Amino acid sequence: MPQKLTDTAIRTAKPKEKPWKLTDGGGLYVLVSPTGGKLWRLKYRYGGKEKLLALGAYPFVSLKDARVRAIAAKELLARGIDPSAERKAAKVEATAAALTFEKVAREWYAKQLGKWTPRHASGVLRRLEVHAFPELGARPIAELGAPDFLAVLHKVEKTGHIETARRVAQICGQVTRYARLTGIVPADAASGLTEALTARPAQHFAAITEPEKVGHLLRAIDEYQGEPSTCYALRILPYVFIRSSELRGATWDEIDLEKAEWLIPAERMKMKRPHIVPLARQVVELFASMRQFSGDRQLVFPGLASASRPITDVCLLNALRRMGYARGEMTIHGFRSMASTLLNEQGYNRDWIERQLAHCEKNAVRAAYNHAEYLPERRRMMQEWADYLDGLRAGAEV
Known about the structure:
Blueprint: H1 7-12, E1 20-25, E2 28-32, E3 38-46, E4 49-58, H2 63-78, H3 83-98, H4 101-112, H5 118-136, H6 146-158, H7 162-181, H8 211-223, H9 228-240, H10 244-248, E5 255-256, E6 261-264, E7 275-278, H11 281-294, H12 313-322, H13 334-345, H14 350-356, H15 364-367, H16 375-393
């Protein structure tokens, strides 16, 4: 019968050129490496195959502890369980427990920053920190189900913030989808949560779309007396129908008056993709006139308080209000709705209109290359649109 190991025998064992074993019986032994390391191993058979189970390193795992661990492993074998598989499962479970919703959400958030504007990124993080993390953040993401997310979302709804609840639901859905794609969880528990939320009321930006009233609006803009930045921004906006922030933040290096083209860089666009705006003859003339006011400044529409900051939405809105257009009648965003409605009514290709509005392209690969898509057609459409507006301004019956 082989002699059992002793602490003295293990402690005084010297390394050799090749690894060698100090056996304790029952498959338990110490593997002495050439560098002097002493590792506990248990040899056993499972499913007809010989396998090894690591039990730790001596002296951190003592002889007594190693024997206890070996006995525990053999008890699993007696119940038909592979100790190695059991250990792997325990590690996976421990890892899953460590991957909390907040940890995964912040990892997902960090990977999205490159394609978001600072303002959007700040909004996403704020919604997570205010609404999701307090109740879900510390919980393992693998344990969360749809009811857990809905409990949080319904609480937000009860405060009357219907749209906020929907935004938080969308963010949670993106986080769990990321977790599924990266193998953290097997299923996307927060997918489709908005279907279980209160339907949001339809949101319409007030816009003038009747041709005769459009003509009145254009004449009112022409007659408005105010600061040059505000006046010219309002005169240009109906022709180009881009977002207010994209117009107000325009810089002269983006605009090529000779080519009659305005290239708005990706970082200034809502969807972080470059956008080309063909400039009609009338717009080129307006920009050229505005140049004499902004001079050598970088911004096309500098603000009153600081030449390094553009005019604000409030400036444009106040101008509309002074012209007599109430909040429920016309908004700055309404110029986009006005163009979209009238161009569609006139039968222009919907793809041309959507591309000119810089609406999001669902196909990500296509979106990366489509900033110049339909450019010849859009150039013609934009000139015809400008001529149409001039006709309405002159009182033509179109």
